[in-house]
Amino acid sequence: MDYKAIAQQTVQEVLGYSQDTSGWKVVKISKKVTVSSKASRKFQGNLYRVEGIIPESTAKLSDFLYQPGNRLTWDKSLKVYNMIQRIDSDTVLCHTITQSFAMGSISPRDFIDLVNIKHYEGNMSIISSQSVDFPEFPPSSNYIRGYNHPCGFICSPLSENREYSKLVMFVQTEMRGKLSPSIIEKTMPSNLVSFILNAKDGIKAQKTSSGYGFHPNTLSSFQNKK
């Protein structure tokens, strides 16, 4: 499987979502985070767009979101987040297991995602991800394996204050299993808002705690692993 080609295609799809201004419906606004949705072209579900302002420079924010080393310290939606193979310095395969949510009505899922980071002029960064098959890490009977259609974060500096970033996140997750679409549509917007708020809390924590262990502008968590 040509993982590099898949990664490049995923980046282009995420860029396309960011440039698509038609058909979005605002489904939730909370604590200065806006969630919009439209029907996905990839599966019988929704593509979500989440927008918020993060009090961190774009370079540090993109690295913060990309590295798995500290992810579990702030991302309350996950209980496992591991890199399982490095494709190149900017592209990795990750295995994640989610927490249950919707008061337990949605059980944990696991995912194998191809994750890539790409930097652009003007300090914009795109972190894209898409689920892929990885024969060395087959599904287990312990979890339903979900599937992330092209997803991603777009980080860009605010023109009025470059120490702050605009974060736009695109999510289209196929949970699989026997789930009512209405349960997902009812719970997903709140979970996406929580993700942004948890990221803000995580950044605040790494600024105030010298023992946090986050090193901006490095990819050491990936690059030191083979």
From TrEMBL:
PANTHER family: PROTEIN CBG07384, STAR-RELATED LIPID TRANSFER PROTEIN 6. The gene is STARD6. GO terms for biological process: lipid transport. The keyword Transport applies. Transmembrane segments: none annotated. Keywords: Lipid transport, Lipid-binding, Transport. May be involved in the intracellular transport of sterols or other lipids. May bind cholesterol or other sterols. InterPro entries: StARD5/6, START-like_dom_sf, START_lipid-bd_dom. The keyword Transport applies. This is StAR related lipid transfer domain containing 6. The lineage of its organism: Eukaryota, Metazoa, Chordata, Craniata, Vertebrata. One of its GO terms (molecular function) is lipid binding. Residues 20-194 form the START domain. It comes from Prolemur simus (Greater bamboo lemur). PROSITE patterns: START. Pfam families: START.
